[in-house]
């Protein structure tokens, strides 16, 4: 049923709550996992005005090391795993990568925001769910459980 499974991660414990579900499906389907972390686009001019610095290269390198560590654990369970880091709009990059890799399932956590937090930050999961051409398995991850 599923030949390639895309798992989106953002280096947070909440996002990692999707991993056991993705691993279980991958094991049942004998499917490889594609781990994706997207480093969001940051307005460099706004960052400078705010007196903050953003080191793209360091962020991408840290994300790559993070994904490589998770891939090693997954491969230890007998699965095939690929780690990729992208830069850009998170939802757009997830959808683009899904198409490029011909993934047929996206597994991701929702961060459980509601109210003002959801309005201010938007919902990447909502955008992926709305525009994906493949099934999306959303795992509700709350900070308290």
CATH architectural type: 3-Layer(aba) Sandwich
Q: Which structural class do the helices and strands define?
A: alpha/beta
Beta-strand content: 15-25%
Weakly predicted, low-confidence segments: none
Please report the number of helical segments. Answer: 7
List the helices and strands and how they pair.
Layout: E1 5-8, H1 13-16, H2 19-29, E2 33-40, H3 44-49, H4 56-75, E3 81-88, H5 90-101, E4 105-110, H6 115-121, H7 124-131, E5 136-140
Parallel strand pairs: 1-2, 1-4, 2-3, 4-5
Helix pairs in contact: 5-7
Description:
- It is a single chain.
- The protein is an alpha/beta fold and 145 residues long.
- It has one domain: HUPs (Rossmann fold), CATH 3.40.50.620.
- It is built from 7 helices and 5 strands; from the N terminus they run βααβααβαβααβ.
- The chain has helices at 13-16, 19-29, 44-49, 56-75, 90-101, 115-121, 124-131, and strands at 5-8, 33-40, 81-88, 105-110, 136-140.
- It has a 5-stranded parallel sheet with strand order 3-2-1-4-5, with helices on both faces.
- α5 runs parallel beside α7.
- The longest helix is centred in the middle third of the chain and has 20 residues, at 56-75.
- The protein is globular, with a radius of gyration of 15 Å.
- The mean pLDDT is 88.
């Amino acid at each position: 049923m599923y030949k390639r499974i895309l798992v989106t991660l953002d280096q947070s414990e909440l996002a990692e709550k999707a991993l056991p579900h993705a691993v279980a499906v991958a094991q049942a389907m004998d499917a490889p996992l594609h781990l994706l972390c997207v480093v969001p686009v940051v307005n460099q001019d706004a960052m400078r005005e705010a007196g903050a610095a953003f080191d793209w290269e360091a962020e991408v390198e840290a994300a790559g090391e993070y994904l490589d560590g998770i891939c090693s654990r997954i491969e230890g369970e007998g699965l095939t795993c690929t780690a990729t880091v992208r830069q850009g709009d998170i939802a757009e990059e997830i959808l683009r990568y899904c198409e490029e890799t011909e993934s047929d399932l996206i597994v991701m956590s929702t961060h459980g925001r509601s109210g003002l937090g959801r309005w201010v930050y938007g919902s990447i999961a909502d955008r992926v769910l709305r525009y994906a051409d493949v099934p999306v398995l959303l795992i509700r991850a709350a900070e308290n459980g």
